Structures are given as C-alpha cells and as structure tokens.
Amino acid sequence: MKDVELQVPSPLETLADDRLGAAGVRVLLKRDDLIHPELPGNKWRKLKYNLVAARAGGYETLLTFGGAYSNHIRATAAAGYYGGFRTIGVIRGEPHDPLNPSLAYAVSRGMRLTYLDRGTYRDKGSATVLEKLRQEFGEFYLLPEGGSNAEAVRGCAELPAEIAEDFDAILCAVGTGGTLAGIASGLGNGQRAIGVPALKGAQFLENEVAELQRQTFGSSTANWTLDYAHHYGGYAKRTAELDEFIADFEQRHGLRLDWVYVAKMMAALFDAIGRGEIARGSTVVAVISGSEQPKQTSSW
After folding, report:
1. How far is it, in rounded angstroms, from Cα 153 to Cα 77?
2. Structural domain boundaries enclosing 227
C-alpha cells in the first residue's frame, strides 16, 4: 500500500485505575485505534487479507455496503485509496445533500456512492441485486457489510499472538461478529474471549460468530461468550449513564472512548469487575478498536 505506515503490532498499555487495584484485576489496553488514523483497529485487520485476495484475483474495484455513518464504508474508501483500488459504497437509504462527514470523507478518498432503498437493501446479498450492481459498475471484489468474512476472521485471529503478556480473558466490541470470531480462534489454552454487542437483540450473533469460525477454520470454538446487557438502547444509541462513564474514563485516563462500540465494551468490563465476576489475580485485555482523541476532527 502506498504512503501508509501501520503501527502493527499495536501498543499494549497497562490501565492504572484505583478500582482495578481494589478488585485485584489487571487490565491491559490493546490500542488498535492507533494502527492508522484512517484504518484503525479491526477495520485494518478485517481488510488486510481481503485486499490480498482482491489483488490476487485481478480485481481493480472493491464494492461494499453500509449505512450513512458506517465506519466500514470509510475504512474501505481509505483502503482503496492507499491500495490503488477503485471503491464503490452502496449506502442504505436515500441520498442526502450535503453529505454527512462520514460519506464526505469516503468521497474525498475516491469512493463512488450509490444508494439502495431500504427494502432492496435487505436483499443486498441476492444474485439479482448483485447482478444489477455488476451491470452498472463492472466486475468487483465484494466486501460484505461490516467486512466480516473468512479473510476478515483470519486477520483478526492474528491479534492474540501480538500480546506478549500472559492474560486470562480478552474483551472486544461486537458488530457483525468477525472480530470476536477471529480473536477467539487465535487464543491459547485456558484463555477466553468476551464479546459485547453494540446492538439490541443480538442473540443471533451466537450463530453468526460460530459460522464465521467454521467457514474460516473448519470448526467453531467454545472459548467465547457474548454479553448482551450493555447495548445502552441499541446500535448508535446512548444513555446518560453511558455518557457519564465516558466522561469519567476520559477524566481518569485522558482517553475518550468511541461511544458507539468501545465505551459499551469498557462499561461491561468495569461492571463485571465491580460485581466480582472476574477473579482476583486475573489479567484482562480490552481491545480499543476506536477512540475519540480531543484533537481529532472525526471519530472512528
């Protein structure tokens, strides 16, 4: 990829917090948000082997799907820009002018946008919809919404091996399940993964994560669980309680957590520690896939 420096492995930081000391739990932050300003966290890990596959297949265009504020749309646009691919973003809903900051960024990185009404969007994976897109845009390498496929899982499975410290559990935020599927597949004996869905009613992810593991590695693992209790109203929704947690965490640690995904995961971790659900003497890794730094103009 041209003109792009990736910080991989991403840094590992010890979280100093009096609440952790009192509980006898050590927390390490896996700072995937620092991999690259435009390709942070699980976005790069998911795209890495997809870009390899696209290039090996002779594709010149990447096409993917997402909502109007999709981080995956932004990351695909960045990956295309740096990787030398044309990019097509198929957006759910009707076009709006002016573009919101997420879509404006995607366009600035060369992405061409097209729109599907919500009814058609629900059938986006059908042969009929895909054939119409091929007729309009030509051949393309298809990236699923959210980027979760076997190549994405393979990329995320590399994360645990980057952690030189011994640890007992690792937490990550969950959207489509690919990150959790990969991380759990890369764990050692006795280690477990906990995924915290950012959306309400996410029980369907049990099957999604297991199926992604089977598609990638031939079988699913039993070393992961999902915490459904910390969605704070659902995807892209927040509550006063969550906002208080974010503000307190920033005051204590100087890091403003991404509220859509990561803050919910960190709140789940502190709740579990407060309830004594994590044994004293445990070391837990929290994957920070996105953050809102005060000097940045946009969040991931």
Report:
1. 20
2. 12-37+149-287
